[in-house]
Amino acid sequence: MITSFHPPARTLMGPGPSDVSPRVLAAMARPTIGHLDPAFIEMMDQIKQMLKTLFNTNNELTIPVSAPGSAGMEACFVNLVEPGDKVIVCQNGVFGGRMKENVQRFGGEAIMVQDAWGTPVDPEKVRAAFQAHPDAKILAFVHAETSTGVRSDAQQLCAIAKEFGALTIVDAVTSLGGIEVDVDGWGIDAIYSGTQKCLSCPPGISPVSFSAQAVARVKARTTAVPSWFLDKNLVMGYWGGSGKRAYHHTAPINSLYALHEALVMVNEEGIENVWARHEKHHAALRAGLEAMGITFLVDEASRLPQLNSVRIPDGVDDAAVRTALLQNYNLEIGAGLGDLAGKVWRIGLMGAACNQRNVMLCLDALENTLQGMNAPINLGMAAQAALATYR
Ligand SMILES: *Cc1c(COP(=O)(O)O)cnc(C)c1O
Question: Are 351 and 18 in contact (CB under 8 A)?
């Protein structure tokens, strides 16, 4: 007979989902109420308000899409791209490739700006693309490339788009709640994130925000938005500011309790402190790994603290190590993707998973596991090196 499912107690230090805080899990287990219940609507308004603070924006259209980060991405592209539109898409990892797919599926023309995996988007290439295609309507790029651990300079890229009169679509799935995201300051027009990376919620919700200019672009469309579910004109009847809510779809009530609690926790800690915590534990993890002789894929200047891509030592069996970590330490780290498969591990320090206990566990587990496989690493140095950064 099939019985209740009880997941093993894992520590999630991969590219997401990350550890969910017990407070968030407890919030999720509270009783479900109606999605048009006045108490629920009040909570929706609080979520919108807290998301505006987190994105640092006054955008009225700042809401959680009822589906994972990929749906937030699709919401941006399906609303803003019309057939024939030229969109400059930057690709320096997996997720830029998905942006290209989105543009093409909605009838747009994707002008690709390619950079090597492990390096940031090159602003000069973006400028050159606009010079070659001054009629491009949108610039799309990934702020924090989870497939490689690279941070691109969102502020600079948005400034270039503005020079050429283009809107911007920014993937902030891994950046939001881990490093600074400044929607109004940087002039971002459409941005999407996810709950299961640095916000430490379960997966399934995608916070998005559209600027007034982006909303105007959606309203000025000459063709209908080709998705009913993600059409912002319709969704706003449900999430809109007037207080009156029309049924559009049934919100994932308990998942929104989780998001609400996670946002309350960010507010309690203070967003600057949240960013500083990511930097602090990244510095400790880095010191430990480097003491072991393990090196980073990404140059220091563009490294993400929340996603550490490190080279797998020579002769080490990638999958065997990850399996041993899971079996012996209940610890999940991420594999490399695409060309980086078998070459790097991706060690996440996201949200609630970004703490000293996890850093020390990861270093200890990795050292013991690699030692057992006779890998070429320095033994007995990692923990001290990490602890030194905390003193
Ligand atoms: C995880 C991720 C996504 C996709 O989010 P899902 O919630 O898995 O759909 C998109 N972009 C980036 C950069 C991501 O890390």
Answer: yes
pTM: 0.97
Nearest atom in ligand 1 to the alpha carbon of residue 194 is 7
CB atoms within 10 A of CB 164: 18
The per-residue pLDDT for range 162-210, each reduced to its tens digit, is: 999 999 999 999 999 999 999 999 999 999 999 999 999 999 999 999 9
Q: Which fold has domain 271-390?
A: Aspartate Aminotransferase, domain 1 (3.90.1150)
Work out the end-to-end distance of the chain between its first and last CA atoms, rounded to an integer number of angstroms: 53
Look-up: residue for tokens 């490190």? Answer: 310
* Domain locations along the chain: 22-267, 271-390
Ligand 1 neighbours, Cβ below 6 Å, are 16, 68-70, 95, 142, 146, 171, 173-174, 194, 203
Q: How far is the CA of 135 from the centre of ligand 1 (A)?
A: 29
Give the model confidence (pLDDT) of 58-103 as tens digits.
Answer: 999 999 999 999 999 999 999 999 999 999 999 999 999 999 999 9
Calculate how far, in angstroms, residue 378's C-alpha sits from the geometric centre of ligand 1.
35
For residue 266, the model assigns a pLDDT of 98
Local structure of 38: helix, strand or coil: helix
Q: What is the pLDDT of residues 254-266, one digit of tens each?
A: 999 999 999 999 9
Instruction: Report pLDDT for 356.
Output: 98
The reply to whether domains 22-267 and 271-390 share a CATH topology is no
pLDDT of residue 137 exceeding 70: yes
* Contact present, 254 and 30 (Cβ < 8 Å): yes
Domain 22-267 has CATH 3.40.50.300: no
Q: What is the DSSP string of 164-175?
A: TT-EEEEE-TTT
